[in-house]
Amino acid sequence: MSSEFLWYIPNTVEPGHRGDTVTDDHHSLDTLTAQAEALERTGWTGALLGTGWGRPDTFTLATALAARTRTFEPLVAVRPGYWRPANFASSVATLDHLTGGRVRVNVVSGKDDLGAYGDSEGDQAQRYGRTKEFMQLVRRLWTEEHVTYDGEHFSVTDSTVIPRITPRLTAQGERRHPTLYFGGASEAAERVAATEADVQLFWGEPLDGVRERIQRLRALSEELGREHAPLQFGLRVTTFVRDTTEQAWVEAEARVAEMAAQADRRQEDSPAYNPHRRTAVGQQRLFELASRGEVLDDNLYTTPGRYGAGGAGTTWLVGSPQDVAKSLRRYQDLGITHFVLSDTPYLREIERQGEQLLPLLRG
Question: Which of 2, 51, 121, 221 is positioned for an S-S bond with 58, CB 3.0–4.6 A?
């Protein structure tokens, strides 16, 4: 199975995300389209679009960018409490039809500002139970007609989504519906991934951690009686690439020093900041890596997590294009086939890494 390489578009109204260029029009349609067009031009498959209350609506952005591009595939991040499954299945089926099968979906179960959009708080079992039903029902609505489903959290009666999803052949095999990506490192999350997801996304953990999780998820899939095609695996990580190894480390350390100096002005002041994110099991796994050393597996830099970086910004793969390509190939050897990479400034790095890194990975 060949690998796929996507980028990341943060989708936030505040400029300067993780060191991005600060401009008044950073979230204009023209600016975001320029990024999507650069992704097409330099060989990326598409991009993950960030989601969360306090950000612009992710599905609207995906639709706008898809309309302005020809091959760009939006990986649309969504929350089950923000969408009801039948409405979401219908919206995705329509966009998938209009774009010729370019839509991907990343289901997010982490806590958010739930009350702001009419959702309610629940414990971990409730959240992941609801997520499981959401993914089950969406998949059925895309692949079956006259669906009746009566779950604890969602139900539909005699439901058929129009237009129907068209099955397609891709480099990853037969695509019967938009690919369902999913993240989460807790036991409850992994049980959902093992049975319902198409792709399990990992953060930038060391190779031994990723290897162990892949083995566990494969065993869980068999134990729980997975009914779908085998679970695939993906990596979401910052790739800090410069022309030489020395230049990359000098600039990476300088950026971390700047982050340390500005640690009292973190993104907690942003209306899009999600305070729950830092308490997630997967995020805690990344923070704990710093206790093992500043650099793991040759060039996985853990220090950014000490100074406010979160998510994919917690750890960075640092080096020359050859260094970073070598590291990513080691993840490929473990079974990773979907990569979501990024660094800032976003447009500059789309082009730099598209021209210098992607050819090494695909060659």
Answer: 51
Per-residue model confidence as pLDDT tens for the chain (363 residues): 789 999 999 898 887 777 778 888 889 999 999 999 999 999 999 999 988 888 999 999 999 999 999 999 999 999 998 999 999 999 999 999 999 999 999 999 877 888 888 888 778 889 999 999 999 999 999 999 999 999 999 999 999 999 999 999 887 788 999 999 999 999 999 999 999 999 999 999 999 999 999 999 999 999 999 999 999 999 999 999 999 999 999 999 999 999 898 875 555 444 455 454 555 676 777 778 777 889 999 999 999 988 876 788 899 999 999 999 999 999 999 999 999 999 999 999 999 999 999 999 987
CA neighbor of 1 nearest in space, from 231, 230, 337: 337
Instruction: Evaluate whether 305 touches 330 at the Cβ level (below 8 Å).
Output: no
CA dihedral 104, 108, 113, 115 (to 10 degrees): 90
The structure's pTM equals: 0.93
Could you give the angle at the alpha carbon of 233 between the alpha carbons of 174 and 62, nearest 5°? 70
Please say whether the beta carbons of 316 and 301 come within 8 A.
yes
**DSSP H helices in the chain:** 29-42, 58-67, 85-99, 124-143, 187-196, 207-223, 245-261, 281-289, 321-334, 346-356, 358-362
141: CB partners within 8 A, 6+ apart:
85, 86, 89, 90, 93, 147, 156, 159, 160, 161
Question: Residue 77: what are its φ and ψ, rounded to 5°?
Answer: -80, 130
DSSP result, 303-337: GGGGGT--GGGSSEEEE-HHHHHHHHHHHHHHTEE
Give rounded-to-5 percent helix, strand, coil for the chain: 45, 20, 35
What does residue 145 show for φ and ψ, rounded to 5 degrees? -120, 160
Q: Which residues contact 196 (CB under 8 A, 6 or more apart)?
A: 132, 135, 136, 139, 180, 182, 228
CA distances from 92 to 84, 108, 133, 228, 327 (A): 12, 16, 17, 20, 34
